[in-house]
Amino acid sequence: MRYRSPNEIYASILVAAGSGRRMTLTKLIFDCYIPHSAAIKFTATLVQSGLLEFDRLDRVFRTTDKGFKYLELHNEISKIIEVKEERFTSDRLNVLMLY
């Protein structure tokens, strides 16, 4: 698996928890491919930020409205970065072809 930035991990947790399934910590660990210690750290940060909520009675995580807004913005920014990377890569190839 390739390196993922913290923002990508936050987004994958929010997507998994917003899928409508009963998302326990164990399911998040498996769905997001993260170790237990990282899952604890990332979910705690998301809960403190109000992007994720934890239901103590059912012991499940759910993405909040604020979390869904974060995902929208994350996806928009990812698309912009992807386009910039494509342009950068094609420019580098053109320069290399000149030599």
Q: What would your notes on this structure say?
A:
The chain is mainly alpha-helical and 99 residues long. It is 69% helix and 8% strand. It has four helices and two strands. A two-stranded antiparallel sheet has the order 1-2. Helix 1 packs across helix 4. The longest helix has 34 residues, at 65-98.
Estimated structural class = mainly alpha
Based on the coordinates given, report the CATH architecture.
Answer: Orthogonal Bundle
Encode the helix/strand succession as letters: HHHEEH
Q: Compute the CA-based radius of gyration.
A: 17 Å
End-to-end CA span: 34 Å
CATH class: Mainly Alpha
Q: State the total count of DSSP E strands.
A: 2
The percent range for helix content is 55-70%
CATH domain fold name: Arc Repressor Mutant, subunit A
Mean pLDDT: 87
CATH fourth-tier homologous superfamily? Winged helix-like DNA-binding domain superfamily/Winged helix DNA-binding domain
Overall tally of domains: 1
- Give the overall silhouette: globular
The main β sheet shows up as: 2 strands, antiparallel
Strand order of the largest sheet: 1-2
Low-confidence stretches: none
- Content of β-strand: 5-15%
DSSP helical segment count: 4
Q: What is the fold's blueprint, element by element?
A:
Layout: H1 6-17, H2 25-32, H3 36-49, E1 52-55, E2 60-63, H4 65-98
Tags for this entry?
single chain; 99 residues; Arc Repressor Mutant, subunit A; two-stranded antiparallel sheet; 4 helices; 2 strands
Quick structural gist:
The chain is mostly helical and 99 residues long. It has four helices and two strands; from the N terminus they run αααββα.
